[in-house]
Each structure stands twice: as C-alpha cells, then as structure tokens.
Write a structure and sequence with these properties.
alpha+beta, 10 strands
Length: 182
Amino acid sequence: MKKTLDINDYYFGVITATPEYLKSAKRTRLLNGVDYDPFYDTPDNEALIFGVPTLLKKETINNKTIYIDEYHSRYPKEITYSLKEKNRQGLVLAYIKPFTDYYSEEPTWYLEEDIVKNNTFLELCEKHTYYISYSKLHKSEAIITLENYEEEIMDDYLKDLLGDELFLQITGQNKEYVKENI
C-alpha cells in the first residue's frame, strides 16, 4: 500500500453547534451502534458556546478550502466545514490550528496488522506522542494520537475568542485579577 497521508494536511479545529442542529432529528446519526454526533456527550449549552475539538483534514476543492471531519463522518466527506461558516448539518468550524502546532514529532508509520499481531501498542505509547497507522487489509491510513492535547486546544480557542486578558481573568490565571478578588 502506498503511504499517502501527509501530516501537514491535518488540523485541529473546534466545532460548535447551532440551535438548528441541536433541535434536528438528523443529529442522531447511528451506524452499527456508534453515535456519530460530535456532541452526544456534551450538554447543549456547552455545544453552542464552547464546542468540541476534533481532528480535520484540509482539502481544496474547486479553489475552495474545506476541512473534512473524518472522525464524526459515517462515510467519506459526510461532514465538511469552511472556517466560521455553518455547514449543511448546522455545525460551525469556529477555530483551526495545524496538527503540527501540537505534535512536533516527525511522523512514524506502523502497519496496523503488525501492531495487533505482535501486541506492540503499549510500546508505541512509550515511544511516541502519535503515529500513523496504515492497514493493508482495509487499505486505510489514520493518525493515532497517544497524548491528548484537547485541553490545550480548547484554551487556545478560548484565548482566540475572548482575548488573552479576558481569558486569564475568567480562568483565574491572571495573578493581578486573582489578588484583587481574594
């Protein structure tokens, strides 16, 4: 199998819901017992305001940049986004940052069938922050993250949304703000 995944095509985004999405019956998208709703375990008010981070693949189609949500899609390119625009499902890509801003390690490729056969997953967890898994059997490739930067991604999004000063005040990280309010 030819390895085609380019790590520079991947981004972390924060997606938010719209009221229309939260009210829609189409929100429930089950396949083989798996719920593909990005907000299935997020309270509606948090889905509207804060959103959730997700891994996205950037593509250019007809001179337009789109971001594909491979994790929450039931089939290829089911959910796509353009930055700050509501998509057909009623979701908004509110924030985007390159994958490599969080994971600076060079990509390492591992054959999924070998990982399973040799039971080497725990060894990979000790060596890497992420790796790229490819499968000859399924003819697929995927980024497997081993360290979770979800909180850092959300902090970066909130700093972008609120500004540094307000973010620090709200989170209690501003020493002057904390002293004034004690």
